[in-house]
Amino acid sequence: SAKEAGRSCFKFYRDSMNATAAIRLQLEQDLRTALKSGEIVPFYQPQICAETGNIVSVEALVRWLPAQGGIIPPDEFIPIAEETGLINDLGLLVLQHSCKQAKQWLDQGHRIRVAVNVSAHQFRQLDFTQVVEKTLKECNLPPSLLELELTESVIMSDAEENIKRLIELKNLGVTLAVDDFGTGYSSLSYLKKFPIDILKIDRAFMCDVNSAPDDIAIVEAILALAKSLKLGVIAEGIEEAEQIDILKSSKNLLLQGYLFSRPLAAEKITPLLNQNFTHFMQN
Ligand code: C2E
Ligand code: MG
Ligand code: MG
Ligand code: MG
């Protein structure tokens, strides 16, 4: 079946991550082709306002849908894309799809922001800001409906250079989020210097938040930090309503995780946009 074919393909690529150069070269070529043939697309995962239960934004998460069926997750091909520089084409493709999709939702009456992951490689391109600006213009998307997710390590890799880049991006009017917050650098002073809007609490801290006191302490510290710096917070990896309890008192809080929805193809997201998720939050 197509599903089985997809699974073996999936296995093939996973194994190839530590396989010979020849197989990796094959994967690179397949990825190059897939980027042109439309097999690479973003899925979208809802981010829900904790106060209202409405979807306010979605995260674009890239998927490879091979012609023979199945779904290859990003961990299977992002590393190769990074190594080969294909990540720039991939990133642009996801950015373009996402902006087009957000504009389409807007035209249908849904004011949904779309969050796009930006890799180190992309962020370091000298014309990255212009690429973002051009894409927003081409799609006729209000910049406020685009969010860019950067990891701490990308931001901190060259703090002085990056601060300029972030200010440029901020001046476009886009929203800037720190992805996987808490897993990278320990220096927090950059949060004050950099024009960041949102901290995304890494899934690792949310996992055991009801059993592990250490994780609770970290999550509470991040919430307090966000509050005093007036930053928004997104908690990812919410799988159970119990995980939300610890977060409840915070303002400007968005929730993301399998409890609400897995990442889905755009056409499967559209019918969810009118839905209210409050009942998912009660345990
Ligand atoms: P990320 O940006 O931290 O994305 C969150 C990951 O957590 C996604 O995995 C998402 O599917 C997963 N997730 C969300 N809710 C839950 C949950 O409740 N439980 C569990 N177990 N997992 C959950 P995914 O889609 O496999 O993406 C993995 C990573 O690949 C992303 O981590 C991001 O670093 C990277 N990635 C994905 N799309 C892109 C892209 O377009 N460009 C770049 N540069 N990287 C991407
Ligand atoms: Mg992300
Ligand atoms: Mg993340
Ligand atoms: Mg992550």
Automatic annotation (TrEMBL):
Transmembrane segments: none annotated. This is cyclic-guanylate-specific phosphodiesterase. The chain holds residues 307 to 589 of 589 of the full protein. It comes from the Bacteria. Residues 24-277 form the EAL domain.
